[in-house]
Amino acid sequence: MDRSLPKIRIKTRRAKELVGKRIVIAVDSWPTTSKFPEGHFVRTLGDIEEKDAEQEALLLEHDIEYRPFSKNVLDCLPKEGHDWKVPENLDNGDPQLAKRRDLRDKLICSIDPPGCVDIDDALHAVQLPNGNYEVGVHIADVTHFVKAGSALDQEGASRGTSVYLVDKRIDMLPMLLGTDLCSLKPYVDRFAFSVLWELDEDANIVNVDYTKSIIKSREAFAYEEAQIRIDDKTKQDPLTQGMRILLKLSKKLKKKRMDAGALNLASPEVKVHMDSETSDPGEVEIKKLLDTNSLVEEFMLLGNISVARKIYEAFPQVAMLRRHGAPAATNFEILNDMLRVNKGMNISLESSKALADSLDRCDDPKDPYFNTLLRIMATRCMMAAEYFAAGNYGYPDFRHYGLAVDIYTHFTSPIRRYCDVVAHRQLAAAIGYEPLHQIHMDKTKMDLVVKNINKRHRNAQFAGRASIEYYVGQVMKSNESSQEGYVIKVFSNGVVVLVPKFGVESLIKLEVLGDVNSAKFEEDLYKLTFKDKQGSMRSLTVFDKVTVSLKSVLDEFTGKRKVQLFLD
Question: Where are any strands of DSSP class E within 374-533?
């Protein structure tokens, strides 16, 4: 499936049967006398363009572990299965249970994307008698079931993360945990790990407390439902008022982050609607963001930052953290030059604050999408964030550039990220709930874990994008469409156009645009002039808005369906 790999010669008697199939092969040798490596046939996945075959090929291509969990792993789950319950009585002689705080009286709810079943976070807020607010972030207590060093833990560590494809989720942990026992479903008792803050009117932290807990969520809202409930003035019940407090404080937290220089970056977020009967892809839309999206995000960030400080204080060598390096100024040179030449604007890079402010200023009144486009392009000039063990860097290098904080970790999604599982164990040890297992004290082992989860995280992102690309190709198969696009790169042999609605981008070659011999490329102006198919002269420069037709074509070499763009 990868153009960069050479063709591989295999010997088989089934050549006729294999034509038009997706197959798995292994490479055995590459004789010095041959142009091609030699290999052997392993198995067939199915027909090219058949959904299941393409999906499995995509998983293999991005090295995603998708086989069912082994018996060894499943044996680590509670014997009662779906009937497992939180014990009624906290003083039943279990010393660990007695250490948990009973928070079942708190009005807790979760706010997630529609249809979410692996609910790993829930929230509550209430005004205290002194006028301050108590805010709680409650995270699924995955480590209660996933013990360090067990077969289940090793499997989670090796998978590193759950993978989200358009119509499928490949879980890091068995479904019984992810969508049932750990999931903070409403109306049932659940074990959680809670971070409780006292915040003042300006959302400053007065104090913070960490505890293993028992909670009972009152409602599981989708973002939109929560938004409607908050906006409905007739609703004055304590749960809704708690959500209004959360919203008010989250706006203050966000303003503080932005003032400190946090970046509001953009990526083309695309959602593919599936037909519920046939699960064929229907139309594609850009995701809408509501205030409630940002409400959840702010408290998850606050939770992650507070936990990072606590575990670093307790384990300065092995604390599991996440950093985001400042981008090298050279990464932005071309983007800045394009801006200067074509828009008379520039972005500054002295600090993340300077970058954030200058991105806000780059506005084109004639084109409301321009600012988002610029943020997408700026994101690509950035370094990738990465997990690391605290002992590997000096404190100044812990900084998370994009979030503008000095220390950060992932704590809030232990059902679907292994980093969070480790952070939970370290936090439990830091508050004296239980000792930290040897495997997380060993710096060499931690380095291996970190290396693997960074790789798995990257693979999961690529697989998710490839899945969207595949489905957009399928959607386009039956209906070509004309869309707005933006020129984001100009070369002597063509231009790269991004189509925001579908999140696809593609090079439109000069020979498709018009007459190759008439073309003139001005590199310093990021401009390509050519005679189009109708014989009139046209110029394209970076940031130009163009109308393009999208057609779905099959790539001869890889058998992948690609969306090809043509200039209208």
Answer: 386-389, 481-491, 494-499, 504-509, 514-522, 527-532
Q: What is the fold of 480-567?
A: OB fold (Dihydrolipoamide Acetyltransferase, E2P) (2.40.50)
Other Cβ atoms closer than 10 A to 553: 13
Which of the 8 DSSP states describes residue 566? E
Element (H, E) at 22: strand 21-29
**Site of tokens 């495997």:** 439
Three-state SS at 180: helix
Contact criterion met (CB below 8 Å) for 387 and 322: yes
| Run of H or E including 47 | strand 38-47
Task: Look at the block and give the residue holding tokens 């839309």.
Answer: 285
> Domains of the chain: which residue ranges?
71-326+384-473, 329-379, 480-567
- Identify any residues that bridge with 109 across adjacent strands, giving them in sequence order: 123, 219
* pLDDT (0 to 100) of residue 568: 86
Q: Please give the distance of CA 557 from its chain centroid, rounded to a whole number.
A: 30
Tokens for 539, please give them: 């110029």
pLDDT in tens, 254-276: 999 999 999 987 666 666 666 55
Q: What is the pLDDT of residues 349-391, one digit of tens each?
A: 888 999 999 999 999 999 989 999 999 999 999 999 999 999 9
**Beta partners for 122?**
138
- Give the list of residues 6+ apart from residue 251 with CB closer than 8 angstroms, or none: 291, 294
Burial 185-216 (b: 16+ CB within 10 A, else e): bbeeebbbbbbbbbbeeebeeeebebbbbbbb
Tokens, residue 400? 């998370």
φ and ψ at residue 176, rounded to 5 degrees: -50, -40
Q: What is the structure's pLDDT at 558?
A: 83
How long, in residues, is the chain?
Answer: 568
Do β-strands 205-222 and 101-102 pair in parallel, antiparallel, or remain unpaired?
Answer: parallel
- pLDDT, tens digit (0-9, with 9 covering 90-100), for 88-115: 877 777 888 889 999 999 999 999 999 8
Alpha carbons 433 and 69: distance in angstroms, whole number: 30
Question: pLDDT tens digit string along 454-474?
Answer: 999 999 999 999 998 888 888
